[in-house]
Amino acid sequence: MSTIHSYHAHIYYDASTLPQARALCEEAVRVFGLKMGRLHERPVGPHPDWSCQLTVAVEDIGAVLGWLALNRNGLVVFTHPETGDELADHANHAIWMGAVRPLDLSIFG
Questions:
Q1: What are phi and psi of 69, to 5 degrees?
Q2: Phi first, then psi: what are they for 106, rounded to 5°?
Q3: pTM for the model
Q4: CATH number at residue 39
Q5: Domain count within the chain
Q6: pLDDT 10s digit of each residue in the chain, 109 long?
C-alpha cells in the first residue's frame, strides 16, 4: 500500500462564485492553518474548472473534510491523497463533494 504524504483539496468555482470560494479557502487557512494555493481564474492541470488548492496534513484530513462538507455551500470540492502516483491519486483515490467533474488525466502520461 502506498504511503499518503498529504492531501490536496481543490475548491472549484467560476466568476460568479469566486468571492465565495476565496472566503471558504481563507477561512480554512484561518481555522486549520492550511497552505492555500493561488485562486486560478482558468482551468489548471487536470482540473476542468477554476480552482484553488488547499494542502491538508494526513492527521487533519478528517476534520477538514467534515468542515468542508458543512461549509462548501454548493461549491464542488475535489480531494485526493498525495502518494507520488499522480494518476492513481486523481483517478482512483478521489473524494468528491458535489458534482463529479471530468478531469483531464492525459497530463499524467
A1: -60, -40
A2: -65, -20
A3: 0.96
A4: 3.30.70.1240
A5: 1
A6: 679 999 999 999 999 999 999 999 999 999 999 999 999 999 999 999 999 999 999 999 999 999 999 999 999 999 999 999 999 999 999 999 999 999 999 999 7
